[in-house]
Structures
1.
Amino acid sequence: MGFEERRKREKESRKNAILKSARGLFFNKGFKPVTVESIARKAELSKGSVYLHFKSKEEIYTHILLGDIDKFHKIIAGLVEREISASDKLMALAGAYAGFFINDRELFRIMMNYMLNINHMNLPEEVDRQIVSATNKTVNIIEEIFRMGIETGEFPPYIDLRQKRNAIWGLLNGVISLHLFTGSEDKREERILASIRTGVNTFLRGMRTPS
């Protein structure tokens, strides 16, 4: 391995150590109490080393959220194009969404912390826009699936798309919030997925176009 390649790998390793340490701190303490100094200490690096990779705590926070939200979008990228009913697409998206956060509880708490405290985090306006835009991609996919269901006659044409998408979005986050950090670990995934299946099915039964 040449010098340049080794230096590149070392730089990437330090960057990953910073993000991993910051994730844990944001997860345990929320956004405000965490400082660049505490992140550096957790990563066993100097503050200067952290600033070589990131300009601020806000940039680190944004990098974590945007990077992981992008991972989720890649998972569901082909969902809308699948040759299945709109109901099955919604159920598949719900399962993928729950599964993603079951496997990454830190990210879910970080994301919920952002959503619940958006007006008190004092992030730069551009950072807020980036995070909201990335999060809205998932919400927009839900709306697009409902629109497809209307076009195929599976759902009635008079439904309020925004209202329905927000209801599903709220259902998913509500079930995950309720169960992700409570109860026995060995039953947690089963309980979350079962609750989401029941909730989405009940929701869909109430809005399908009568035969």
2.
Amino acid sequence: MQDFPAIESVGTARRSILKREMYNYRGVQMVDLVHASRGCRFNCYPCCVNFLGGRSFRPRPFDKVVEEMAGIDNNRLFIVDNSLAQDKQWEMDLFREMIPLKKKWCCHPIEDDDKVLDLAAQAGAWFVYQAIFDSSDFIRDRIKRYHDYGIAVEGSILLGLDYHTEDYIKKLVDFLLEVDLDMAEFTVLTPFPHTRTFDDLHNAKRIFTYDWNNYTCGKVVFQPKLLPPEKLQELYYYAWDKFYEEEPQNYKMFKMLKKVMDKEKADGTYKTRIRQ
């Protein structure tokens, strides 16, 4: 059992030490990062967050979170919590407190609930990172519901699971295009230490390199069950190329950015640059 400091002791990040020019790309304001909680009660197969942040969900007090957000001289935030969908009441209360800030923000998944989604939209939800693990109606509806509330979706797609074949991966990419996913980020299953993935693949002697320089989420470092390693590596590049074939990644990002800029102009929070 890990002994973490009291969550109340987590203070405001020292943004004064940041190089502000890194948050301004060609005059376009990028995002600042902020935490509203620590830890994650889930135990996802490839994830080491349980080890790094603990298995318990530890939300920060609302007043401290909102005070920190309000003090950030940037209208665009990335709430970098592992998942906001861990306590529905806390989630709704947080979004309700954020509404007056008029910030625009992205985050990892939020609860699939009408009240939560509505409050998130009112609070300025821009887009979410959503794990997409298959081409089921559940995933199709999940993406549609985000879109119904004006929230864009960047899918996080993991390649190399034991049931993945070449045909499966190609059909999955086709599905992502069919459901109008706004952005996609493909990664190769990577057995990071302190994950169930590492334990399973290590015990099965399927990991063929322990050179951590290769653990980039873009290189195959293990023996897939139904594919040669070289084929999985090829399919990783195929997925990126195919998804962005008609609309390049930069263009898809521009479309998402334009929508948030339009919202900022409508509520009077638009800025072309941040202070250096």
3.
Amino acid sequence: MNDILLITISGEDQSGLTASITGILAAHEVNVLDIGQAVIHDTLSLGVLVEVPSETHRSRVIEAIQSRVAEFGLSVRASDISPQSYQHWVEGQGLARYIITLLARKITADQLSRVTAVVARHKLNIDTIKRLSGRIPQGELPALSKACVEFSVRGELQDSSAFRTELLEVASALEVDLAFQQDTMYRRNRRLVVFDMDSTLIEAEVIDELAKAAGVGEQVSAITESAMQGEIDFSQSFRKRVALLKGLDERALAEIASQLKISEGAEHLLATLRKLGYKTAILSGGFTYFARYLQEKLRIDHVYANELDIVDGVVTGEVVGDIVDGARKALLLRQLAQEEGIDLQQVIAVGDGANDLPMLSAAGLGVAFRAKPLVKQRAEQSISTLGLDAILYLLGISDRDQSGD
């Protein structure tokens, strides 16, 4: 029977090392069963699981590698792997794989300790841990710093609800975000991203800004908050709020549009998605006037929102056509996916209010962004710590991928 060896090499990373080691293995006609390499701060860790043919003396392979590694000034270890251990490893390839993404302004040992403790309690095995965010300079953190670590875990998850609950408890206690998703072929193959507008792409509820200009700010804000919390029907509340805008000069719309503050990370996210060939859309319970403004600014493909009725330069207090409420957002999402010829699993939906929940549920990846408590509780994923571009981390896209380095 052939011997199975695990060869591990560590030390200062040097050019040509991996080529030299695999060259030795090739000369001895060794089969490579698994291989992994990582470099952290110029320190190499290389592992190779090999099958040594029965006619080849394992000692010759080990001696050749030890001699070559010594030339590089590194350390090497060769361990025998039993047939039973190898078979157990092979059988593990059928187990489900999951991705846990830790999002924070900075990564601490406490965060890693608590997350890995949850993984251990549920008897999952960590295959890899990767930093997706860029390198952080020593000293004071730069403004709006981003930090992300991705865990790839494998195993039979007996109680996914309990697992998610524990992760959420850790996230809440440490004021970080923890996303948990199954590692499927769709994760890196999303094709369409749809966004709510108010308090998602922009840091405001436009109707509240219009209400301030019309002198009815407090009345409209109270109705808006109640609707976003899911306490009252969105369509009903929307008509009530619009009615209070009657008599507003349409020139106020242009002034408000020019002062809209884009949410953190939105411009970077949209630019990156565009480079990657994604289609994007705004599905908003707000107004088309502002959605079109953002469409041009952020180069978004599709816009669906509510048409504010204006006659002779004055807001009438009415809405033209059907209201884009929660149900309509979900319907439009499905229509866009069909038009683009993609599966719903390839769609990402992002929103913050209760009226976004239907589309968040319909999408393959639903993300509650700086959302109301009810939405955060019900959504599959939630981002509150970082900006919108943290969504790229949920897709497994690192800062290095984004920069092209």
4.
Amino acid sequence: MTGKQVNVLLVEDDEVDVMLIQRAFKDAKVGNPFIVAGDGMEALEKLRDSDTVPRPYLILLDINMPRMNGHEFLEEIRQDEDLKDSIVFVLTTSKADEDKFKAYQKNIAGYLVKDNVGEGFLDAVKLLDSYWRIVEFP
């Protein structure tokens, strides 16, 4: 690992889901710093302010949000020279193949479904923890 702690930008509009996701990370004893944005527009603002979301970071992105949804957000960051290399995992309730296909076309690192609660979701959190412990970040 790079020796730096990876920041997590959670882009999620549902406050209950935010609390559940943060609790799952805590239960898995994953202590990475969390920054929360309520939609894609807020996430872009935070990412463009490097003091708010310092590198290295990883983005957990919901698909279904107001103002700017996850697909629109992915479109924006992939066209932005400073953000196009962002590592994004989609974390959503959508199981629709169309959503998966669109997201993978924008070079996401993985697609995780939120309704896999309990052990399945805890396994997903542990996967993310292992990911940023093993993968080298610039």
